[in-house]
Amino acid sequence: MSVLQSCGAAKNPCSPIIRGIRAYFAPVDRTGVAPVAFDTAQLGQFDLDAPPSSWIDLGWVDDFARKSASKVGVLAHGTPASAVMQLREQSDATVRLRFLHWGKLQMALASGSEHWNLLGANAAVALNAGSTATKLEMSTADAAKFLPGQTVVVDVDYSGQTGYVGSGTSCAHVGNAASIHGDADFIRRVSINVARVVATDGAGLQLATPLIAGAPCAGMQVQTVAGFMDREGGTFFQEWSALFVVQAEEGERILYNYPRLQAMTGARETINPLAGSLKRISLAAEFRALPILDARDGQQVLCYRSFLPAAGMPI
Question: For 112, 136, 146, 246, which has the most beta carbons within 10 A of its beta carbon?
Fold first, then answer.
């Protein structure tokens, strides 16, 4: 009898048996400190290949480990002192994992700081009205400058803005405009509003995936991206909401929702044997959870863990 058959036949089910953990991230409004809410009761059973709005699928992760570093103290009273109640002295939690897929967002999250687009040689191209999150409208002459398979970034010019910059999510923080040296392309250099071109025609570009900022607003322009770059150092921290989904073989589902995560280490990788002389290089990441106030009761919260039992499973 297999492990699954044995568990299914038991009066009390075994611990969930899983094949992997899927990671989803959503941008946090840094100015308003507003993470993306996730209602597990309504959305918890979503199709893993079609996450709810605002959540971006970053694929499967490995070596997933959660750690609670919260500390509980004791209030003592009397002689000799006796514990009369407990109190929470410190709330802290971390998450460690390896991204099994390389991409713009995986690199940005793993590195923690600003993440750079290596812009192509062509100047930014203006967009026409009617552009959507998946179709960029432009003149015929401008559309001819792009090719299927290219990566593009879509964002506004830098024109002296300070504070958080970037469309769709905060990609950098500018404290002093002089530090940007008048670079009109600066926001597009750090923007995460990127996508791959799958087709071109005389009217514009068709994108493989929707831009995370949605339909382009007035003033946005598009540039080609040759690749991505991160760096060790800097004072900016990426901050995202995270959702980790564990789908068990018997139909159960475990979800870990971290409303606010920031990377707590610099860019690093792990190299693991694959087959023969082949090795897999993965993006290693470690995050610290930051608190929110739960609107239901005003309590400070770092993470929500939910369990959705399979139909017919004993409670």
Answer: 136
